[in-house]
């Protein structure tokens, strides 16, 4: 069925006039005459059967009805412009289209984009998000960032490069720990655990690495997506399993803290995927170089020296409590981390 659309040129002229609140300003912006603007608006009024502008003194002013209509038309033009930018990019256009899973985009990528723009002010980065491992491959992008639980046949058409491997440990909102302190592992049993359906076994893996696999919380709260679980932890609903460097900014800002930074397990590995037949433009090459450098810098920021004092205190407490160090913690090197391949488990096509 054919769409019943008003004259598109008339829509463009009308939107400009309503936004500028002046027919003369619209004529100047569009490089047409004042009379041409008036004729296009009259054409649109005839099509709609509505008066869009009324005379007030020496000016033509948009009616309330027209202003509401113009707001929706403006939003539609924005969508058209964005689609043209994303799907009609010419090789010389300095645009990089990035598709990332929601958690990584929210907590890691977006917060770092100002650093890229400062170094490359003439490059526009268009970020879209995906909650499924397959959705992004139905849309246009220059680079996708994905968790890589296993090799996928559909990824053979992409150049895959490891970005970073997360390290997972318990995270909590500082006010929650002030109200109900966690000084020893047994104190965890007084709390609620926040878990995520798409990261199966995260709590079990960490508790096993900590040497207390049988420990149980007051209750579990489970959410379908990881970014929802993280927000619940920030809001103080309970303790969660968080990953570095994804949450470095939340830790630095004091929104989250680590009760046991010395006990960490292997988390997800993130990779970049670039279509093999894609145009490797200079903006894309610059973005990829910056992206991997930012990941390396964040990994370096998690060095054991930054938590050494707190780690030593925690290890001493556990040694006093148990009479020996946990099997997965080396007292001589208290920040040495535990590893657990089981944390790499994820559901096929899992959402983030």
UniProtKB/TrEMBL annotation:
Region (Disordered): 316-352
An annotated Gene Ontology molecular function: sequence-specific DNA binding
PANTHER family: HTH-TYPE TRANSCRIPTIONAL REGULATOR, HTH-TYPE TRANSCRIPTIONAL REGULATOR TRPI
Domain (HTH lysR-type): residue spans on this chain: 6-63
Top-level taxonomy: Bacteria, Pseudomonadati, Pseudomonadota, Betaproteobacteria, Burkholderiales
Feature: compositional bias, Low complexity: 337-352
Keywords: DNA-binding, Transcription, Transcription regulation
SUPFAM superfamilies named among the record's database cross-references: Periplasmic binding protein-like II, Winged helix' DNA-binding domain
GO biological process entries: DNA-templated transcription
Full protein name: LysR family transcriptional regulator
Keyword presence, Oxidoreductase: no
CDD domains (UniProt xref): PBP2_GcdR_TrpI_HvrB_AmpR_like
Pfam families, alphabetized: HTH_1 (PF00126), LysR_substrate (PF03466)
Family affiliation: Belongs to the LysR transcriptional regulatory family.
Record's keyword annotation contains Cell inner membrane: no
């Amino acid at each position: 069925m054919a769409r019943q659309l008003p004259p598109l040129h008339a829509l463009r002229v009308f939107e400009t006039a309503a936004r500028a609140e002046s027919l003369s300003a619209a004529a100047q912006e569009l490089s047409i005459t004042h009379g041409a603007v008036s004729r296009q608006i009259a054409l649109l009024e005839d099509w709609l059967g509505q008066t869009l502008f009324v005379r007030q003194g020496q000016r033509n002013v948009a009616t309330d009805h027209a202003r509401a209509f113009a707001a929706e038309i403006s939003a539609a033009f924005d969508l058209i412009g964005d689609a043209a930018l994303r799907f009609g990019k010419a090789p010389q256009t300095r645009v990089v289209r990035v598709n990332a899973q929601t958690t990584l985009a929210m907590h890691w990528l977006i917060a770092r984009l100002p650093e890229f723009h400062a170094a490359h002010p003439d490059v526009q980065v268009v970020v879209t998000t995906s909650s499924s491992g397959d959705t992004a491959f139905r849309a246009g992008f220059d680079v996708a960032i994905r968790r890589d639980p296993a090799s996928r046949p559909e990824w053979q058409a992409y150049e895959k490069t490891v970005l970073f491997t997360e390290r997972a440990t318990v995270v909590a909102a500082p006010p929650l720990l002030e109200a109900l302190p966690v000084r020893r592992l047994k104190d965890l049993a007084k709390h609620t655990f926040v878990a995520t359906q798409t990261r199966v076994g995260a709590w079990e893996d960490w508790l096993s690495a900590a040497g207390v696999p049988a420990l149980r919380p007051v209750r579990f709260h489970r959410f379908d997506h990881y970014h929802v679980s993280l927000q619940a932890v920030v809001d103080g609903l309970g303790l969660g399993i968080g990953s570095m460097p994804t949450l470095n900014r939340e830790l630095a800002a004091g929104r989250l803290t680590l009760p046991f930074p010395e006990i960490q397990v292997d988390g997800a590995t993130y990779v970049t995927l670039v279509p093999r037949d894609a145009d490797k433009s200079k903006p894309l090459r610059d973005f990829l170089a910056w992206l991997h450098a930012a990941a390396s810098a964040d990994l370096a920021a998690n060095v054991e020296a930054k938590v050494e004092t707190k780690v030593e205190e925690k290890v001493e407490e556990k040694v006093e409590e148990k009479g020996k160090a946990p099997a997965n913690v080396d007292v001589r090197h208290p920040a040495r981390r535990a590893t657990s391949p089981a944390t790499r488990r994820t559901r096929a096509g899992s959402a983030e």
